[in-house]
Write a structure and sequence with these properties.
This protein has 208 residues and is of the alpha+beta class. The chain contains seven helices and five strands, in the order αααααααβββββ. 48% of the residues lie in helices and 12% in strands. Mean pLDDT is 74; it is low at 160-176. It comes from Escallonia herrerae.
Amino acid sequence: MACFDSAYSPAAITGYLSSIKSLSGTNFRKWKEQISIILGVMDLDYALRVDAPAALTAESSTEQKAACEKWERSNCISLMIMKGSITTAIRGAIPDSDNAKLYLAHIEEQFQDSSKAHATTLSTKMVMLKYSGSNGVREHILRMNDMASQLKGLDMGISEVDTVYVPSMTSNIISVSRLDAYGYSFKFENKGFSLFLYSRVIGSGLLE
């Protein structure tokens, strides 16, 4: 059975692929969101929502045959679009499957740990970032906002309520975020501070 008709031609699929940013080690959630939107718009996300139907038999009803055909088309094109938007190097590290729903689960499992590691690194940079005075406050704020946006995309968003400004540090502004929920803690002593992640020192600085 052909897995696409004239409405889902190779040219059309290529067009959709061009709008998806290739999967990398840090953009899994955005990639998955784009895949879901495109397949949803094409009405081809059926195989990602429904398990594979039982094999057809001579006794299968017309409705069962139609459901099976719908699932097979959705499954085939979903796999094409997912695999086509992943670089060859990354694709080789993902367990293959001819089931789109299972293949997506394999991808998610592969990138779950790397996303957490990237979030930890990014949050550490953000909490230690201080205003240097060379590029202006506006640039500093934009950089902080960019980091916050990236963390939000990794399900580790930081709101304005979570940000504390220390007014006494007029010559050395430091943005400190309350990240207790993520394993971070601070210790202030002798005009300095230390940043801990799960009781391990990952940074320090002076308060003068």
